[in-house]
Specification:
With 308 residues, the chain is an alpha+beta fold. The protein is built from ten helices and nine strands. The protein has two domains: 6-167, Ribosomal Protein S5, domain 2 (2-Layer Sandwich), CATH 3.30.230.10; 179-307, Alpha-Beta Plaits. It has helices at 44-61, 73-81, 98-110, 122-140, 146-153, 191-202, 205-227, 231-248, 258-267, 290-296; strands spanning 6-13, 24-38, 84-88, 157-159, 165-167, 179-184, 270-274, 282-287, 302-307. The chain starts with 5 loop residues before the first strand and ends with a strand.
């Protein structure tokens, strides 16, 4: 029996800003994936996943989902009793959608009215994002629903300020010198504490002002120029965005990476930003010359996500 695969995701732009009505740009990352599987003899890892699914099914029972997005909880519980687990190599706490892939897999298998991801109408995307947000809140306290949506759709998505979602095409150049890449911090991050720090910061009027007037402006400019392939404007705004994050998101940046974060800005070779909520996991990097960046960051574990 074939089990559908659900891939990791990368939120290129929009971390934290989406909470305050910025735009977001996200794409699938097929290096990591997960699928629901069954085993009659669960090993230690599989048993841990199975127990987690049991708790999750209990949480899903408490939700009042719209009829068209209803989940067959009784069948889900039966399958969990019969040894179902989530077989995944998506690293947890790394900002690449481990819980999003699980939510997408559960919805795909147990939604009472089957909705093929390639036939979803634009009008349904917004509603589905809300449902996915409710379903994923079990893992993070509060979720926008974007991670499960990108994992479910498996295509690049543009998130608009009014919570609308647009499917977009994003051509990749396999031979381009430029790259989007990940740096492994070597430690997982925890979403909830990082988000709490952000909400504490929002209580400060000065922070709210700079978030709206600077961060969201640079974020949205980056999305526009990246999609239109205006790389001059893109890297100009990206430098501002990276510097802003260094000044205002310092608690979310793992301490040992502050030095290379500054080095990228000072040398203009690459620019770094948070991947997800930060605090650990992956750090996202952008460069017009990956070869030169490779030399500067030779002591760090990196993965190329996208070439241009």
């Amino acid at each position: 029996m074939k089990h559908p695969l659900f891939y990791a995701k990368i939120l290129l732009f929009g971390e934290y800003g989406i909470i305050e009505n910025s735009r977001g740009l996200t794409l699938p990352y097929n290096a990591y994936k997960g699928t629901l599987q069954f085993s009659s003899e669960l090993n230690e890892i599989e048993l841990k996943s199975n127990k987690s699914l049991h708790k999750y099914a209990g949480y899903l029972k408490t939700l009042s989902l719209p009829k068209k997005f209803a989940i067959n909880i009784s069948q889900l519980e039966k399958d969990i009793e019969n040894g179902m687990f989530f077989d995944s190599n998506i690293p947890q706490g790394y900002g690449v959608g481990s819980s999003g892939a699980l939510v997408a897999a559960i919805f795909d298998k147990y939604s009472e009215k089957k909705i093929s991801s390639d036939k979803i109408l634009k009008t349904d995307l917004k509603d589905l994002k809300i449902v996915f947000g409710q379903m994923e809140s079990f893992f993070h306290g509060k979720s926008s629903g974007i991670d499960p949506l990108i994992c479910y759709m498996n295509i690049p998505l543009l998130i608009q300020p009014n919570a609308d979602v647009d499917k977009i095409g994003l051509a990749e150049s396999k031979v381009g010198k430029g790259a989007v890449f990940l740096i492994n911090s070597g430690m997982p991050g925890e979403t909830e504490p990082m988000v709490q720090i952000f909400f504490e910061k929002l209580k400060n009027e000065g922070f709210r002002k700079t978030l709206k007037e600077e961060f969201i402006k640079y974020n949205n400019n980056c999305i526009d120029s990246f999609l239109s392939r205006d790389m001059g404007s893109f890297f100009q705004n990206l430098k501002h965005l990276s510097l802003w994050a260094l000044n205002h998101f310092t608690p979310m940046i793992p301490r040992k990476f502050l030095k290379i974060w500054k080095k990228g800005i000072e040398t203009n070779t690459y620019y770094l930003k948070l991947c997800g909520s930060g605090g650990g996991g992956y750090i996202l990097g952008f460069t017009q010359d990956y070869e030169a960046t490779e030399k500067l960051l030779k002591n760090y574990k990196k993965e190329v996500v996208y070439r241009f």
